[in-house]
Amino acid sequence: MSKQPRGLGKGLGALIPTGPIVDPSMAAPAPSPAEAGLRPVEGAYFQEIDVEAISPNPRQPREVFDDDRLEELAASIKEVGLLQPVVVRAIGDGRYELIMGERRWRASRIAGMDHVPAIVRSTQDDEMLREALIENLQREQLNSLEEAAAYRQLLDDFGATHEVLAQKVGRSRSHITNTLRLLNLPPNVQLRVAAGLISAGHARALLTLDDATAMERLANRIVAEGLSVRTVEEIVALGEATAGPAPRKPRAKKPTAPALRHLADRLSDHFETRVKVDLGSRKGRIVVEFSTIDDLERIIGTMAPEAANSMRGLDGE
């Protein structure tokens, strides 16, 4: 098997003090919880475990795994690594049984990983573990991709909600939603975000594109040409990111009054999304972009809280 991909950290694994290592040769001395700035997580620790030392949970209700989806996840793991650790319990003789994350474990085997990041849990109290992880998420400085992976695993594996995460980590609900969207980027674009070559603002602009190839092409331009977020937004709005190799004549762009641009910038900051303000000869319009029903509900809640109340339940939360 090939070596495990490295480079982006381990999502929730970064929030848990390191425990025993199966293979001492692969471990550096583990920092204490105090040195790591983390609260000790009772009944759980982080460890990298041999893939073949893990057995699936025989009580797993899910029996069918989509092969195509597994291959897609395996390809992402090869490129980026596994950001969301599996959750296991020790069953003796150096072996472990899966509690959560069988799909991630299966995809890691397909990707040829020797070891997978894992949360080794002895406690049966999911809520206690979830609360400790959320508390440590406030303390540890993660990169954008690690943060997104931690949010996703807390939502999927530990039954947290957007509201709970927002309150516990001191972030807005829109921040949670926008950070989670980074996981929709193609793997090699995620690498650039994690490395700090592309900002979260750049990433949000890229995510308005439907085509992964176009995202990758524009991401390469951002790095090579040092494009600003505003420039990237304009490229996307003009459709230049999806244009083929044939030269195309730039579309004439109507100049925007400085006052309108300033107003659009203020509204974008206020609603934490892109806002466009256009003024014609007889009337004008304001366009407020949103990514999901959850994001739309958040924006409407900012504009008109009474209207947002009537939308509760549309996103299935």
From TrEMBL:
Q: Region Disordered: what ranges? A: 1-35
Q: Which CDD domains did the record assign?
A: SPO0J_N
Domain spans labelled ParB-like N-terminal: 47-137
One Pfam family it belongs to = HTH_ParB
From which domain of life does this come? Bacteria
Tagged with keyword Nucleus: no
Alphabetized, the UniProt keywords read: Chromosome partition, DNA-binding
- Residues spanning the membrane: none
Q: Which InterPro entries match?
A: Chromosome_partition/occlusion, HTH_ParB/Spo0J, ParB/RepB/Spo0J, ParB/Sulfiredoxin_sf, ParB_dimer_C, ParB_N
NCBIfam families for this protein: parB_part (TIGR00180)
The UniProt entry's sequence similarity note says: Belongs to the ParB family.
Name of the molecule in the record: Chromosome partitioning protein ParB
Q: What organism is listed for this UniProt entry?
A: Microbispora corallina
